[in-house]
């Protein structure tokens, strides 16, 4: 995770001259999908400059690993099978949800497995590798993580808070009912826990029990500004699958269930407009420059599944940027459309305000909710000729366009007039070359600028006008 705050600083002495420093977390984009038919993804950025990527394969029979110096590079990176299921006995079936971690100078993979003769006897296991490169190094089995309750258990993950290492996982406890709950315990070593685990979350709400399944699973942790955020996945592994979140203070007793507050509803869920269904089993990583937190997750591109979701192989690995609200909590937004991920555009002279659509009118506003109203894909301009167009993230096919010099978000009607009105030249920021200004394709010399917080396309000739027409990508 990123240290510190992403809030921009403001300089200047008046509203007319105030402006933002270049954002601490500038825009970053990726092209989804990262990997087809790879579920429960885990991407780990190591100090050696490589990202390491592992995930569940549809055959549920092996653990695979890739590495690349960029996240996008993982898409084409060679994949190596570093471990294969046993032909008999334990670790012989349902090889699920591997995660790779680097602890005290060695690599560890946590994964779940059933028995060859009892495929639902699923428990957590650990592999170890002492080599610098875990893709080519040899892995040894450290065995099963012994838990006090010997029941269905999976999705182990590990993290540290204030120097203490914890293990979080999902497990069934027949005494409290069907399904799986989220548990937490201190670790005594990379493959053992100590003390009594605590149940942090039990699926009781409708959004946690949809599709006929009672599920909390796939815990993942991200920390920021003294808070610990533990996300988890809920409901059946079809289009009902979604993410919830638990929040605690880093200074609290994390082994006390009362230290954690649970989200009232899902924080990330299916979004039909972008054709993304069942997003979840997430983890977190950071951008190449270390300034953006990223959500790593799987979903499907269709809603309806024939038969059991576990027999459908098409969960795929995706990434997108996480934004942080003014109150310090993460905003995951929506699962964005396939292809290029969107950005946000903050105002140069009103740094807490972002371009957004509201009832289809474009404006700048602070604390945008839903955040997807302020996310746009910068795509090849509809008019071509070296231009760009800004496509709404939550209304695919709708673009920023000008009409009567006002800027609106409207659906592409396929006309040449719309294409021209929705195309812009991306110029160096008129008030700061580190920013961007958008010059109209068919009104040369006119730029997208804000006035009374609404967006217009106008000629700019003053210092204020140039400031109003300058934006930063975030």
UniProtKB/TrEMBL annotation:
One of its GO terms (molecular function) is alpha-L-arabinofuranosidase activity. Belongs to the glycosyl hydrolase 43 family. The active site is at residues 40, 217. This is Alpha-arabinofuranosidase. InterPro entries: AbfB_ABD, AbfB_ABD_sf, Glyco_hydro_43, Glyco_hydro_beta-prop_sf. GO terms for biological process: L-arabinose metabolic process. The record marks 155 as: Important for catalytic activity, responsible for pKa modulation of the active site Glu and correct orientation of both the proton donor and substrate. Transmembrane segments: none annotated. Residues 1-20 form the signal peptide. Keywords: Glycosidase, Hydrolase, Signal. Pfam families: AbfB, Glyco_hydro_43. Residues 344-472 form the Alpha-L-arabinofuranosidase B arabinose-binding domain.
